[in-house]
Write a structure and sequence with these properties.
Length: about 475
């Protein structure tokens, strides 16, 4: 098969799997062809992964941080050297257009490895003078961290979790989504090549059952999940059993607000990126587009005209801009939500249909705040358009959701931009653009969209623990 790895798991520096374990065909979403056959991790393999990670972490955590940083930066260079092959593999596994994977997947992963490799050596504590006595703090690794990925950005998610975890001296066991098992294995190979000791980064395959086994293992010190809110609740509860650290990167239903003075062309570009890039399968998408009533019709007209230029096709064709959905299941979920939008009375301006594995880029107008397509995450190429009259109204409507992942706004009035963004209940915001996620900037959500942050120095707070050491320079007194 065209993308079959040597074996399904990468544990303690080598590929392995149990030939008797249940196998799952890995399909190319564009034509349904089987590109690999992946076996589910057995209890023995999960145990072996933890044994390897515990042992490796002792060596890796004791290395000079600058040494660890060097390994991560070398891995970043290797990812960049192999970007074309990694991007083709990611397109095969996700169905995302090659014009996207070439710039947004392994490239972003390399950025994370480079960034955290660069700051690993700055992970120091403090010296706190108390007069004669003093305190110093140590920022210590947590131990073995479990990473669990979603299927939309497989290698990026693996790197966004592995880079800070390893920079801080932890070891990691990463479970990709069962939909997209392949690229994390390449990251594991590259980290070994870059000099990471075997066992520092392990990949095991499987669905929720394997994920649950990883999270509830006593050797798991922390879990970082990228996934849906329902899964987040299960994983968070399982982590609570062992009082384990958690990072939750979950779903969203984010607002994009276009004020009357916005540059319409740029705002339409942002709406397209926020709803149709990766066929809309991005958690931080601005799927609720609020446009001031004075420019609503002009905006809608321009948006529909530009959506007509979308090119649905073979994701390996560099001209393709809209790929298939990651699976028939996901396609059917999106189509069901589109039917709901129609039945609840929203006006379909374009799209709303499916061709094989594809869902056409879809725009609904006249959406009211109570409709399902206004409230529920669709995770597909479906944009809901709303009009609004004034600032207070649109801020209240934008915040009227249980999610809180992201938000964007377009205006030329800078005081309004910063005033409004301060009121928006979202962890990741954009002014006059959307969905740009440099690793220098923290990424994550509030409310049901998650806990903790990935990227930036903020991520290191979730992969270290602080030890305070009080130093007595004199005698110790006691009452008797
Ligand atoms: O998620 P699922 P998917 C969200 C996005 C959407 C979802 C789509 O908003 O809601 O992810 O990805 C594993 N114990 N984000 O369908 O089904 C499962 O095997 C342990 C947000 O993959 O929730 C998979 O590996 N693990 C994100 C992973 O959880 C379990 C960006 C996610 O599966 C488990 C991208 C269990 N009980 C997508 N059950 C962001 N906010 O950054 C399942 N899993």
């Amino acid at each position: 098969m065209r993308a079959q790895p040597p074996a399904s798991h990468f544990i303690d520096g080598t590929y392995r799997h149990d030939d008797t374990a249940p196998a799952r065909p890995d399909l190319y979403p564009y034509d349904g062809s089987v590109i690999a056959e992946i076996r589910e991790a057995t209890e023995a393999e999960i145990d072996a992964a933890f044994e390897a990670a515990v042992a490796a972490q002792k060596i890796w955590g004791a290395m000079a941080p600058v040494e660890r940083g060097r390994v991560l930066r070398r891995a970043a260079d290797l990812l960049r050297e192999r970007n074309a092959a990694l991007s083709e593999l990611e397109t095969l596994d996700t169905g995302k257009p090659i014009q996207e994977t070439l710039v947004a997947d392994a490239a972003s992963g390399a950025d994370a490895l480079e960034f955290f490799g660069g700051i690993a050596a700055t992970l120091n504590g403090e010296m706190i003078p108390l007069g004669e006595d003093w305190v110093y703090t140590r920022r210590e690794p947590l131990g073995v961290c479990v990473g669990i990925g979603a299927w939309n950005y497989p290698i990026q998610i693996a790197c966004w979790k592995a880079a800070p975890a390893l920079a801080a001296g932890n070891a990691m066991i990463f479970k990709p989504s069962e939909e997209t098992p392949l690229s994390a294995l390449k990251l594991a190979e590259i980290l070994i090549e870059a000099g990471a000791p075997p066992g520092v980064f392990n990949v095991v395959q499987g669905a929720g059952r394997v994920g649950a086994a990883l999270v509830s293992d006593p050797r798991c010190a922390k879990v970082s999940l990228t996934g849906s809110v329902p899964t987040g609740r299960k994983v968070y509860a399982a982590a609570a059993e062992g009082i384990r650290h958690v990072t939750m990167e979950l779903g969203g239903k984010s607002p994009l607000i276009v004020f009357e003075d916005a540059d319409i062309e740029n705002a339409v570009s942002a709406a397209i990126n926020a709803n149709f890039y990766s066929s809309g399968q991005i958690c931080s998408n601005g799927t609720r587009v609020y446009v001031h009533k004075s420019i609503h019709d002009a905006f809608a007209e321009r948006l529909v005209a530009r959506v007509a230029n979308a090119r649905l096709g073979d994701p390996l064709d560099p001209e393709t801009t809209i790929g298939p959905m990651v699976s028939e299941t996901q396609r059917d979920k999106v189509l069901a939500m589109i039917e709901k939008g129609k039945s609840e009375g929203a006006a379909l301006l374009c799209g709303g249909t499916s061709e094989g594995p594809f869902v056409a880029p879809t725009v609904f107008a006249g959406v009211t705040d109570g409709m399902s397509i206004a409230r529920d995450e669709i995770f597909g190429p479906v944009l809901s358009l709303f009009s609004f009259e004034d600032e207070d109204e649109v801020v209240n409507r934008a915040n009227n959701t249980d999610f809180g992942l992201a938000a964007g706004l377009f205006t030329r009035d800078l005081t309004r931009a910063h005033r409004v963004v301060a009121r928006l209940q979202a962890g990741t915001c954009w002014i006059n653009t959307y969905n740009l996620t440099p690793v220098e900037s923290p990424f994550g959500g509030n409310k049901l969209s998650g806990v903790g942050r990935e990227n930036a120095r903020a991520a290191l707070d979730h992969y270290t623990q602080t030890k305070s050491v009080y130093v007595c320079m004199g005698d110790t007194e006691a009452p008797f």
